Amino acid sequence: MSNEIARRGILLVLSSPSGGGKSSIGRALRVTDPNLDLSISLTTRPPRESEVDGKDYHFVSDARFDEAVQGGELIEHAVVFGARYGTPRAPVEAALAAGRDLLFDIDWQGTRQLRAALPGDVVSVFILPPSLAELERRLRARHADDEATVWSRMDKAAAEIAHWDEYDYVVVNRDFDLAVASVRAILAAERLRRTRQTGLASFVSALLA
Amino acid sequence: MSNEIARRGILLVLSSPSGGGKSSIGRALRVTDPNLDLSISLTTRPPRESEVDGKDYHFVSDARFDEAVQGGELIEHAVVFGARYGTPRAPVEAALAAGRDLLFDIDWQGTRQLRAALPGDVVSVFILPPSLAELERRLRARHADDEATVWSRMDKAAAEIAHWDEYDYVVVNRDFDLAVASVRAILAAERLRRTRQTGLASFVSALLA
C-alpha cells in the first residue's frame, strides 16, 4: 500500500534442533507472506536429494568458502555437523534498507554472530519440541535420515536446546498450525516496533503540519 | 491449557489522542481475549452518562484520591483535563503474578510513570490517527462531546501525539479491524517473549532430564 510507513527490514531467525520444526514453519510463513524471503546460506556440505543450488543453499567448495570469508562477503559463518555454513552480506543489507524481511534457518552459533553484527535488526525465535520422544518421532518420519543420523541428531538436539535462553522469543511446537500462527504474530508485531518504522517521524510531522 | 508454560502477566498500554481509537480497540480486544482484563482507574472527574462506577472507573472524591496517593495505593497518577486519574497497585501485582494481562487506557504521563514503576512488564502501543481531519470527524461523530469539547480535544491531540516516540509500538489506525489485529499480534508476540515465560527454565530442564 502506498500509505504504509517506511520501515527497516527484519532479520527473523528461527532456530531449533533438527526435527524441531524450524524449516516447516519457515516454509509455511513464506507461503502467506510476500514480504518474507529466505536468506540463502553458503555451505560446503553436499546437497540432499531434494535440494536445489541457489534456492535452498549456495553449494560451494571449501576454497570458494575461504574466499568468501577472506573477502568479507559473509556476515557470519559456523561449522555444523562438520560442514561450513555462512550468510552472504549483500542480500541482508539490501533487504534491511528496502524494508523487506529475511528468514534465517540457522543454529545458535550463527544467531550469535548475526546478532553481534546487526543487533537492532535481528528478531530471534527458538522453537522447542514438546518432548524429546516427539522430536525422535519426527526425525524418524523423515525418510532422508538413516538410523545413525537420527541418533547423531538426537545427541546434538540437547546441545542445541541448551541455548534456548539466548533467544528473544520461545515457541513450543506442540501444534504445527499454532506454532506458525505464533511466529506470524511475532513478525507482525516486530514490524510495528517504533524503532523499526523509520518513516514515522516524517509521517507525524506531516500529520501535525 | 494445562500444558501451557507459566508466564508473568503483561501491562498493555494503549494511548492515543481522544478519538484516536484506543478505547474501541481495547474493547474489541477484550471481547475475544479471556485473559485480558481492563485496569480500572480511580478518577475525580464526574461519570459520563454511559459510565458505570467500578466498571469504567472508580469515581472518587478529591479527599479519597488524596488518601489513595498518600497510602501508596496507586502505581501512577496524573492530572488530565483538570481531573485526577490513578492506577490502583493491588490488581496490577495480582495480574502480573497470575499471568493475566491488564489493559490500560492511559495517556503519556501515566504511561511514563507505569513504565518507571514496572519497566519489564509494560508493553506500550501508541495509536495514531491517519490524519487530523479524520480525528476531528471521529470526535464530531461522538454525541457525548459538544463543540467546545471537540475543539479543546483537538488542541490537546497535537500535544498527546507529540509523545508517540516514547512508545514501544506505533499503530496507525486507518482501518479499525486492521488496527485491532495489529494490537492483537503485539499482545500474542509479547506473551511469547522468553523473559516473560517464567516457566520455561523448568520446562527445558524436564525436557532434557
List keywords for this structure.
homodimer, 209 residues, alpha/beta, Rossmann fold, five-stranded parallel beta sheet, four-stranded mixed beta sheet, 8 helices, 9 strands, 43% helix, 21% strand, globular
List the helices and strands and how they pair.
Two copies of one chain form a homodimer.
Chain A: E1 11-15, H1 22-32, E2 36-38, E3 41-43, E4 57-59, H2 62-70, E5 74-80, E6 83-88, H3 89-98, E7 101-105, H4 108-117, E8 122-128, H5 132-141, H6 147-161, E9 169-172, H7 176-191, H8 200-208
Helix pairs in contact in A: 1-7, 5-6
Structural features, described:
2 copies of one chain form a homodimer. The two termini of chain A are 23 Å apart. Chain A is built from 8 helices and 9 strands. Chain A has one domain (11-198): Rossmann fold (3-Layer(aba) Sandwich), CATH 3.40.50. The first copy, chain A, has helices spanning 22-32, 62-70, 89-98, 108-117, 132-141, 147-161, 176-191, 200-208, and strands at 11-15, 36-38, 41-43, 57-59, 74-80, 83-88, 101-105, 122-128, 169-172. In chain A, strand 5 (74-80) and strand 6 (83-88) form a beta hairpin. Chain A is globular and about 65 Å long. With 209 residues, chain A is an alpha/beta fold. A 5-stranded parallel sheet of chain A has the order 2-7-1-8-9, with helices on both faces. The A-B interface holds A 3, 5, 125-126, 128-132, 158, 161-162, 164-165, 167-172, 174, 181-182, 184-186, 188-190, 192-194, 197, 200-201, 203-204, 207-208 and B 3, 5, 125-126, 128-132, 158, 161-162, 164-165, 167-172, 174, 181-182, 184-186, 188-190, 192-194, 197, 200-201, 203-204, 207-208.
